[in-house]
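Per-record layout

source: Ficus carica
name: Rab-GAP TBC domain-containing protein
length: 439
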Amino acid sequence: MARLFMKKASTAELETFYPIRPECQEDVPKTRFKLRAGKTLSARRWKAAFSQDGRLDIASVLRRIQRGGVHPSIKGVVWEFLLGCYDPNSTFEERNFLRQRRREQYRTWKVECQKMVPIIGSGKFVTTPIVANDGKLMEESKNDSMRDNGSMPTSSLNSDKKVIQWKLSLHQIGLDVVRTDRALVFYESEANQAKLWDVLSVYAWLDNDIGYVQGMNDICSPMVVLLDDEADAFWCFERAMRRLTPAFVLKQRENFRCSSSSIGVQAQLCTLSQIIKAIDPKLHQHLEDLDGGEYLFAFRMLMVLFRREFSFVDALYLWELMWAMEYNPNIFSLHEGATFGAGSATGTAPEVDDKVLKQCGKFERKSVKTGSSERHSALAVFLVASVLETKNKKLLKEAKGLDDVVQILGGITGNLDAKKACNEALKIHKKYLSKTQKT
């Protein structure tokens, strides 16, 4: 009876942090994550993991997260460490200084954007184009077109291409914001939607290589929900994007070719193909026969890290499990030395000794030991492999074409257990390494 009460209390507590709009209750995937005393990283455990001057015992934190996730009350601040915003070996004073510096930097960038588009920072956002392709305000452009018989206005020839491109993207960001996590009560507020729009708009202005690409909204939304300060949400998103940048570059260019400087989703799909071929040659051959050997049906899962396959709560749980398992304490110094928007730092990664190895997540530890820590060998790829393995029999028996593959994989929505999926991914990783090392 007590256990049942605790289970209900756990679910009710989660609902107070991420309430769902009543009319959307039946449409959202079922949440499987439960707060578990003694396993979930609690606020008390989190506080106890810091030394008197603020240095974090990251190894104990990772163990706890890998056992039971993070309590919603501290999720945002824990994520900042998992994503490399802060060095676990820094002090409270050092982090406060860095936090203030970053907030000031974000405010400066936001003011820069406001000067070009005043609606930024106003609590409002746009969903219709504010400029035409010539860079002029929509109304001005129409009038010029009528006067000049459609010829390009002279002034626009001198316009900054970057500014025009950025302004052209703002309404698309707005359209995506409206569609983002709309089942959450949080996004009933236009001010909260505008906060997401502001973060994405500022990011799009700063990232010269990518700008904005659909899907970024799904990655950014949890940061805006979890972190009260908009600047903190921005930096958390920026760090998350460093992990995913190559994927978005390829998506934006609408091709799946690897270049010498980018190894995004295509490389991950190639790795996925190699994994399935090694651990389940029969399934791989079947997918090849269906003309699915490039594994493009898995693109979305990798692109937005399973956001569509899980409930909001379970997606957050999955992410923190993955980030904890992939964690390397050198991530802060590696990112801090990189230029903004770059996929990785230009410098070389610090060497990993035994002390550092103990502070790595279980997936990263194994990867470092075997020397296979390339980005396209990320845990997410093994996670997709674990999903394919759970659907092995169904795929072999029922999939007669790629549409069937997509439909069968679509059936996992709301039916995946994040913890089990990660554990299966680790087993597949171990199995794959043993097979490839033999050959």
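summary: Residues 1-7, 141-158, 246-263, 341-347 have pLDDT under 50 and may be disordered. The two ends are 54 Å apart (CA to CA).
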